Q: What sequence folds into this?
């Protein structure tokens, strides 16, 4: 009887560890030139994609346990490395950080904020669909 309790605790710990180390979901392919730093997991229930024949827009929400200042820097560095031009940044102590980018007429806004347990990153983008001529 005394051996069952430690075994149950060990089994439960292993299960929780396996869940915590699962890799995050990949970024959406509609916006493959918008990299997302490692350590952020895609939140499908919080995200939206809107497509028309001429416009593709999306709101992708990610969360992770990352420090907001280093995440802010990582997002800017990876976006600029992928050809996005930084337009502006705004920092509001209560509401987090807003970064705005543009690339080839497309727009991207990244909101970062801290919740109780997680840091959130919301990518809102709009893209003109290029048609084949």
A:
């Amino acid at each position: 009887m005394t051996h069952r309790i430690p075994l149950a605790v060990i089994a439960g710990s292993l299960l929780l560890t396996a869940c915590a180390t699962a890799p995050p979901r990949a970024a959406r392919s509609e916006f493959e030139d918008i990299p997302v730093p490692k350590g952020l997991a895609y939140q499908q229930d919080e995200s939206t994609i809107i497509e028309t024949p001429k416009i593709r827009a999306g709101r992708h929400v990610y969360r992770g346990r990352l420090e907001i200042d280093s995440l802010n820097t990582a997002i800017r560095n990876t976006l600029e490395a992928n050809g996005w031009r930084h337009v502006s940044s705004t920092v509001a102590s209560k509401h987090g950080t807003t970064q705005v980018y543009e690339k080839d007429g497309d727009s991207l806004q990244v909101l970062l904020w801290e919740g109780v347990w997680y840091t959130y990153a919301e990518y809102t983008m709009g893209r003109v669909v290029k048609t084949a001529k």
